[in-house]
Each structure stands twice: as C-alpha cells, then as structure tokens.
C-alpha cells in the first residue's frame, strides 16, 4: 500500500459512481435503498453534492411518462414503429413503459417537487409528448443529492475519473484527478457505475458532453452498441443576423410540429399530421419540399407558446425559460425562421437489462449508455428523442442499475476483502493520463480544443 500512497490519494468504497446527474443520483439512492450497509461513493468533476452537475442541474423542466389513462403497449408500438425502426430491445422498452408512472410518482419521496393538481394528483399535459408530460422542479438534482446524503451516500466534487483498474477481466477500481489542483486519486472498489453522460457537439451551454465515460469504458474493453445512430437532424433557429441557435434557445424542440411556410400554411399538418418525436426526419423532408416549391423561408408558428398546456410548466421552470429567452434575444411567442441542422448525441456503452456492461463489475446508466441499452432502437441517446424522456431515461436506467450494482457489490464483498491494486498498473495509467501536462511548445490547450 505504501507504494500506492506515493502515487496519489487512495480511497475505497463498495460502489463508485462516476457522475452525479440524474442517472448517477438515482443509482446512488436505489443502491443504498437496496443495501444500506454498502459504502456508496459518488464522484463528479462538477459539484454534484449541491446539485450543480449534469444536464438537468437547474435545467430540468419536462418529465414524460405513460399515465394511468394510457395503454403502455401503445407507447411500445409507437416507439417501435415510428422511432426505433424495430431495432429496439422490446423487453427493456416494455419495462420502461410499464414502470414510468411508478418512477414518476416515487420522485416525491426523494424530495423532488412535481406540479400537482387540486385533487393532489400529478398534473400533466398531453403535449408535446402524446402520453403525459409533467412539470418538474429545476432543482431536482439538488433535492435528490440532499436525499442521497440522508441515506448515507458519500460525495466528492471536482473529481474527474479517467480510467478503470482491472484484475484480469474484472473491474477492481478507478483512477482520476482533482480538477482544481490536479491531485491524482486512486479508488479501490469492486463495482463501478458510469453515469457520466453522452458525447455531443456542444449544442448549447450544458449540452456539451465530452464523452469521457464512453472513452473510459472503451479503454477498459467494454462493448459498444448503436454508435452508428449517434447523429440526427434537428432544427436550428436563424436570427436576423444569420446566426444559428440549437436546442433550447433554438426553440427547435417544438419546431417539428409547428412549421409554417412563407404563405402562412401549416407545413407540419400537410406532411405529418399529429404530434411526433422531436427528431422525426419527415419534418426535415417537409422543410426541404417546401423550400424546393419556393415557399421559403420556413418558420415556426410560435403561438404554441400560448398553448394552455405550456402554462402547466412548473412556475420556476417557466420563469427560468422566460429569462433565458430574453437573454437570448428571443421573446417567446413570436414566429422565427428555422433551417434543418446536423447534431448528434452519442451514448453507446452496451448494457443488459440490469445495466451491466460486458466488463464484469462495470455498470452504466443514463445517457452514457442510452443507445447502448437498445431500448430506443435506431436513435441517438437519450433514446427516442421525445421531450421529457431524457429525464425519464436517466431515472429508469439509474433505478435498474443501482440495485443490480448493489447486489454485485454485496456478492463480491461476501468473498472477502477484494483484490489488491497493482501499483505498476496505476503508475502506467498515471503517466499516460498526465502526459499532456508535460508537453512542451506546439499547441495550447485552447488551440487543441478548437
Ligand atoms: C438545457 C437542457 C435542457 C433539458 N431539458 C430537458 C427536459 O425538460 N426534459 C427531459 O427529459 N430532458 C431534458 N434534458 C435532457 C436531460 O437533462 C438529460 O438527458 C439527463 O439529465 C441526462 O442525465 P445523465 O445523468 O445521464 O447525464 P448528465 O446529466 O450528463 O450527467 C453526467 C455527469 O457526469 C459528470 N462527469 C462527466 N464525466 C466525468 C468524469 N470523467 N468524472 C467525473 N464526473 C464526470 C458530469 O459533470 C455530469 O454531472 C435537457 C438537457 C439540457 C442540456
């Protein structure tokens, strides 16, 4: 151990969770619920202990689920036929359809506020998701991290995990560094849950996943699945100066169902009536056909923002959206021009129904394994791209992976103290990981990133 100590700070836990967004927090809570005696350590390169981590930290708004008035089988059929091109893992898809309501209702017990109606039931709209869309507190990560702490989950902020330590095929730990002072960290644990998000193209602030988790899993020998579906077409808003905006500020989320041409005709109704998943390529084709007919520019009829369902948003979320819209010089309620654009989101770590990867001891939940789970079929992560299913997906995968990882950790623990870490393996990884810090001359970090 003396040798290990000289290489960095050595810590141990039964379960190490990498990433404290919604999926990591869900896995932490459900692992502890499964076996409170397990030592669960959650590390994040941001500040997960205070809810400032992940995509949903201060951005969560819509949570979609299959309500009591819906048939879960309709949801399964829709996903198979309209979105996943029949490449879905139907068992997992059906599982999510049937338990999404329970997952949503359970959130209240974790301190997460969801808008309720006067009868005390979760209030939901049948828009923009044809099943149910509820309005959720933007502080949900903060509330969940508070709840996790009460259950005894330990948090370490500002820790970036880079690689896994293995003995043979099995994971026995991980290494990384403190992002502020560079201190090297060595974790000894029988079970690791990767919950560290997707890789994407810096679509907006917060939508800028670097794909760390994918690289970590890849280097550890984990199989990947559905990486070929990492890209998709979405709409971007064009501002008067010709700048393009994607994602929230682009208003692209609603563009697909509310396109109108220069004559004021409803293009969406003409080519694809009804509500659809956000990334339906038919909408891009509708844009192209109208362009060819000379009916450009194509814009979005933003009167949808006065749709009564819109005002069912959580008041805090609505207030935040209005403030963001003003900041982006994009007053809500006005039509805006859109063009199709190419974006993508990759989360291809292959997992089974328990969210176990192909490497023993390694689990993966949320966006890092969204398409690798195959639940959504031929789609990028988080599967299906129906609004509000990003959060549902993170909750669903986290609540499958947490208990499964707990059982794994408990079983390994029952065999004894676990494998000793190999200082030579740690030294080799440390040298490789820190090598860029030693480089002289040539590119600066900013040039490289650019
Ligand atoms: C602006 C915005 C608005 C959104 N609105 C909605 C919505 O209304 N409804 C909806 O359903 N979905 C929405 N989404 C999508 C949804 O928030 C995500 O799909 C979901 O939160 C993903 O959760 P996750 O835990 O899988 O990953 P993430 O939230 O990406 O969390 C990954 C975590 O891992 C950490 N991490 C990464 N690498 C490392 C490393 N090497 N070491 C340590 N830590 C690491 C990151 O810091 C991060 O905290 C929105 C996303 C954005 C960006």
Description:
With 450 residues, the protein is α/β, with parallel strands linked by helices. It folds into 2 domains: 2-229 and 347-423, 3-Layer(bba) Sandwich (FAD/NAD(P)-binding domain); 234-342, Flavocytochrome C3, Chain A, domain 1, CATH 3.90.700. 34% of the residues lie in helices and 19% in strands. It contains 14 helices and 18 strands. The chain is globular, with a radius of gyration of 22 Å. It starts with a helix and ends with a helix. Flavin-adenine dinucleotide is lined by residues 18-24, 43-46, 48, 53-56, 59-63, 159-161, 195-197, 204, 206-207, 209, 212-213, 248, 366-367, 382, 388-391, 394.
CATH topology of the largest domain: FAD/NAD(P)-binding domain
Ligands in the structure? flavin-adenine dinucleotide
CATH class of the largest domain: Alpha Beta
* Number of structurally distinct domains: 2
Mean pLDDT: 87
Number of strands: 18
Helix content: 25-40%
Structural class: alpha/beta
CATH homologous superfamily placement of the largest domain: FAD/NAD(P)-binding domain
Radius of gyration: 22 Å
Q: Approximately how much beta-strand content do the residues carry?
A: 15-25%
- Give the helix tally: 14
CATH architecture of the largest domain: 3-Layer(bba) Sandwich
Overall 3D form: globular
| Ends distance | 41 Å
Regions with little confidence, pLDDT below 50 for 5+ residues: none
What keywords describe this structure?
450 residues, five-stranded parallel sheet, Flavocytochrome C3, Chain A, domain 1, six-stranded antiparallel sheet, binds flavin-adenine dinucleotide, FAD/NAD(P)-binding domain, alpha/beta, globular, 14 helices
């Amino acid at each position: 151990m003396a040798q290990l100590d000289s290489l960095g700070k050595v810590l141990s836990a039964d379960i190490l969770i990498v990433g404290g967004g919604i999926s990591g927090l869900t896995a932490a809570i459900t692992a502890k619920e499964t076996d409170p005696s397990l030592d669960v350590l959650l590390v994040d390169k941001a500040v997960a202990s205070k809810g400032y981590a992940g995509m949903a930290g201060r951005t969560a708004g819509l949570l979609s689920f299959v309500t009591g008035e819906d048939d879960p089988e309709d949801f399964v059929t829709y996903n198979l036929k309209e979105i996943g091109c029949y490449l879905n893992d139907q068992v997992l898809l059906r599982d999510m359809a049937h338990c999404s309501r329970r997952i949503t209702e359970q959130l209240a017990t974790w301190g997460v506020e969801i808008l309720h109606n006067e009868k005390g039931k979760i209030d939901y709209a049948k828009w923009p998701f044809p099943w149910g869309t509820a309005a959720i507190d933007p502080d949900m990560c903060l509330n969940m991290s508070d709840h996790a702490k009460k259950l005894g989950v330990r948090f370490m902020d500002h820790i970036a995990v880079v690689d896994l330590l293995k003995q043979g095929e099995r994971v026995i730990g991980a290494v990384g560094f403190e992002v502020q002072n560079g201190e090297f960290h060595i974790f000894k644990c029988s079970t690791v849950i990767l919950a560290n998000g997707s890789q994407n193209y810096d679509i907006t602030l917060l939508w800028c996943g670097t794909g760390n988790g994918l690289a970590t899993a890849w280097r550890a020998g984990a199989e990947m699945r559905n990486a070929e579906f990492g890209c998709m077409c979405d709409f971007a808003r064009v501002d008067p100066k010709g700048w393009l905006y994607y994602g929230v500020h682009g208003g692209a989320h609603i563009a697909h169902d509310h396109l109108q041409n220069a004559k004021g005709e409803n293009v969406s109704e003409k080519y694809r009536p009804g509500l659809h998943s956000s990334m339906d390529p038919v909408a891009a084709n509708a844009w192209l056909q109208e362009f060819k007919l000379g009916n450009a520019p194509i814009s979005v009829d933003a009167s949808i923002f006065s749709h009564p369902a819109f005002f069912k948003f959580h008041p805090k979320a609505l207030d935040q959206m209005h403030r963001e819209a003003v900041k982006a010089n994009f007053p809500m309620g006005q039509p805006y021009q859109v063009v199709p654009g190419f974006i993508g989101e990759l989360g291809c770590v292959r997992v089974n129904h328990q969210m176990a990867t192909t490497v023993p001891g390694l689990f993966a939940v949320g966006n890092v394994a969204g398409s690798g789970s195959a639940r959504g079929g031929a789609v990028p992560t988080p599967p299906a791209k129906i609004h509000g299913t990003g959060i549902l997906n993170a909750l669903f995968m986290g609540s499958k992976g947490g208990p499964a990882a707990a059982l794994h950790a408990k079983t390994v623990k029952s065999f004894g103290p676990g494998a000793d870490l190999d200082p030579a393996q740690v030294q080799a990884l440390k040298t490789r990981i820190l090598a860029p810090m030693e480089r002289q001359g040539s590119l600066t970090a900013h040039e490289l990133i650019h």
